[in-house]
């Protein structure tokens, strides 16, 4: 065993140092700028911030108000179908209803169709985590170890594809739009693809690899509340099936509020609808499948345009106006306090 004195530096050896290197960075000698807060600088910053926020807020509110939008609640107008859907044993029975409305003015430009739900709480923690991201990426995983319970497997052990409460409660009403022109009825062409985020479509959702989708999902079963398996969600477009179906992807992006809307379709701008939706009489033909009575919910269908700032939600503009008003009022308050203190200082100096 070495002697304790052997660990001490010997004569001629450099004594170890804990001091940092003698550099400007490590010695904290870098040039720094420390602002001198004068009354002119403080007031200028508050007033400039207030003017900027007020200007942006007014522009955002005016932009949101320029959006053309029509919203129709069809919960009561399809009351017979709603009563049918109260009994889950009627899941395989079809029910259709129609809702007529009139556009007094043309809706020009790109027109988007949304479905809206009211009093549907997607922000519950157990609901939000009830999914398997690995399964949605097309991987062969054991969903029993995921958070999908109780929507994981059936009693006979067959796994659900997709699993989880979010997927099981997917909105499945079918909505078609018809234009009533004189004595003829023209179906408005709608685009069902290209509505989801690119990152969702190409990164977060993928189908299992196989020579066809039916074999890729062999050995799985649809969720309990679905009417068809996941590989038959879109019978018209094979590329819009499985986990990469646009309607499914949009539904899986849950909302933070109980009242929300999701993009459903876009109007295809061809023939009579090249410039948008012309004024006239229209009809929504709805295949009613999604029940809302048990949780006292409401269902809407919305036709809307968009502008550079987004949809018709004025929240961001109002937030800017409130912030600008607060900054401006704060500037005036500081000005009044400064003037009073300066008068007192002048008085005492006299």
Automatic annotation (TrEMBL):
Region (Disordered): 1-21
Bilayer-crossing regions: 37-64, 315-339
Subcellular location, record wording: Membrane
GO BP annotation list: phospholipid translocation
Pfam families: CDC50
Predominant place of localization: membrane
InterPro entries (alphabetical): CDC50/LEM3_fam
Cellular component, GO, one term: plasma membrane
Keywords assigned by UniProt, alphabetized: Glycoprotein, Membrane, Transmembrane, Transmembrane helix
Family: Belongs to the CDC50/LEM3 family.
UniProt protein name: Cell cycle control protein
Provenance organism: Aquila chrysaetos chrysaetos
Biological classification of the source: Eukaryota, Metazoa, Chordata, Craniata, Vertebrata
């Amino acid at each position: 065993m070495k002697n304790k004195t052997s660990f001490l530096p010997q004569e001629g050896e450099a004594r170890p140092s804990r001091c940092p290197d003698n550099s400007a960075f490590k010695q904290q000698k870098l040039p720094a700028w420390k602002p001198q807060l004068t009354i002119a600088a403080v007031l200028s910053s508050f007033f400039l911030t207030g003017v900027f926020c007020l200007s942006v807020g007014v522009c955002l509110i005016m932009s949101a108000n320029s959006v053309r939008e029509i919203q129709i609640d069809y919960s009561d107008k399809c009351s017979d179908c709603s009563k049918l859907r109260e009994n889950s044993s009627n899941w395989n029975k079809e029910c259709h209803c129609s809702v007529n409305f009139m556009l007094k003015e043309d809706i020009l430009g790109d027109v988007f169709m949304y479905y809206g739900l009211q009093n549907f709480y997607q922000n519950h923690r157990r609901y939000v985590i009830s999914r398997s991201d690995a399964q949605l990426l097309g991987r062969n995983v054991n969903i029993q170890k995921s958070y999908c319970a109780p929507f994981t497997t059936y009693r006979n052990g067959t796994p659900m594809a997709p699993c989880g409460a979010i997927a099981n409660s997917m909105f499945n009403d079918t909505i078609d739009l018809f234009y009533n022109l004189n004595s003829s009825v023209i179906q408005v062409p709608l685009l069902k693809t290209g509505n989801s985020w690119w990152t969702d479509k190409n990164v977060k959702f993928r189908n299992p690899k196989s020579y066809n989708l039916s074999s890729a999902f062999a050995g799985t079963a649809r969720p309990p509340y679905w009417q068809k398996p996941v590989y038959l969600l879109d019978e018209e477009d094979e590329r819009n099936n499985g986990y990469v179906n646009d309607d499914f992807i949009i539904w899986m992006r849950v909302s933070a509020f109980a009242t929300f809307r999701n993009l459903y379709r876009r109007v295809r701008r061809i023939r009579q609808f090249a410039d948008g939706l012309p004024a006239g009489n229209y009809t929504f033909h709805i295949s009613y499948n999604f029940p809302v009575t048990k949780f006292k919910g409401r269902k809407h269908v919305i036709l809307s345009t968009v502008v550079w700032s987004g949809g018709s939600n004025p929240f961001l503009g109002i937030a800017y106006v409130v912030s600008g008003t607060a900054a401006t009022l704060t500037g005036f308050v500081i000005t009044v306090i400064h003037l009073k203190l300066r008068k007192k200082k002048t008085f005492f100096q006299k």
